[in-house]
């Protein structure tokens, strides 16, 4: 009897994992990635950028197994996994839990950036929010700006190694 319970539990877990992966993983989203200098700062600029990307017009099959439009492509402007660039992408939205939203190029998925906890920032991101609303949490984009400056110094130091100690 105990073995049957474990098999049912394992089968249930695998089914849930498969459905969650189908919602979030989307090969087609990678074809829409555009690197940008900055992301929208308010709803109006988000609307303009979203209209230009026209994500709703892209026929996607990522959510076909659910027979629902709830997970259709939406415009996102988010950071990457390394927090050194901002990018626009059409992808299914997700609920994000207290971290900055990222798009993983390798995973082809919108997800939390676990190196960028934003619930304690000023202003903080909420414990739960829609990934398409990442523009509301500008401190996440600030990470990209800081990392770009760090990268610029690192590159400069490699050209002028004797000057690095003087800073």
How would you describe what is shown here?
With 167 residues, the protein is an alpha+beta fold. 33% of the residues lie in helices and 22% in strands. The protein is built from three helices and seven strands, in the order αβαββββββα. The strands form two sheets. It has a five-stranded mixed β-sheet. It starts with a helix and ends in an 8-residue tail after the last helix. Mean pLDDT is 79; it is low at 12-23, 65-69 and 154-167.
Main attributes?
3 helices, single chain, 22% strand, two-stranded antiparallel sheet, 33% helix, disordered C terminus, 167 residues, 7 strands, alpha+beta, five-stranded mixed β-sheet
Write the layout of secondary structure elements.
Elements: H1 2-24, E1 34-36, H2 43-53, E2 73-80, E3 86-92, E4 95-96, E5 99-104, E6 109-117, E7 129-130, H3 139-159
Parallel strand pairs: 2-5
Antiparallel strand pairs: 1-3, 2-3, 4-7, 5-6
Rg from Cα: 19 Å
- State the low-pLDDT regions, or none: 12-23, 65-69, 154-167
Give the end-to-end Cα distance, rounded to a whole number of Å: 69 Å
Main sheet record: 5 strands, mixed
> What shape does the CA trace take?
globular
**Secondary-structure element order, as H and E?**
HEHEEEEEEH
Task: Enumerate the strands of the largest sheet in spatial order, edge to edge or round the barrel.
Answer: 1-3-2-5-6
Task: Decide which structural class fits the backbone.
Answer: alpha+beta
Using DSSP, what is the number of strands?
A: 7
Q: How much β-strand is present in the residues?
A: 15-25%
Rounded mean pLDDT is 79
Instruction: Give the proportion of residues in helices.
Output: 25-40%
Q: Treating each run of at least 4 consecutive H or I residues as one helix, how many helices?
A: 3
């Amino acid at each position: 009897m105990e073995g049957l319970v474990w098999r049912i539990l394992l089968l249930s877990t695998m089914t849930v994992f498969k459905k969650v992966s189908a919602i979030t993983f989307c090969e087609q989203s990678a074809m829409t990635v555009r690197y940008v200098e900055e992301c929208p700062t308010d709803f109006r600029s988000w609307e303009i950028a979203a209209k230009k990307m026209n994500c709703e017009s892209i026929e996607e099959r990522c959510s076909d197994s659910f027979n629902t439009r709830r997970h259709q492509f939406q415009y996102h402007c988010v950071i990457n996994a390394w927090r050194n660039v901002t990018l626009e992408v059409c992808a299914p939205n997700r609920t994000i839990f207290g971290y900055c939203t990222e798009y993983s190029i390798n995973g082809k998925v919108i997800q939390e950036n676990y190196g960028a906890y934003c619930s304690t920032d000023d202003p903080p991101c909420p414990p739960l929010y829609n990934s398409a609303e990442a523009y509301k949490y500008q401190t996440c984009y600030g990470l990209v700006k800081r990392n770009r400056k760090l990268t610029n110094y690192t590159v400069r130091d490699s050209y002028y190694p004797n000057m690095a100690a003087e800073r």
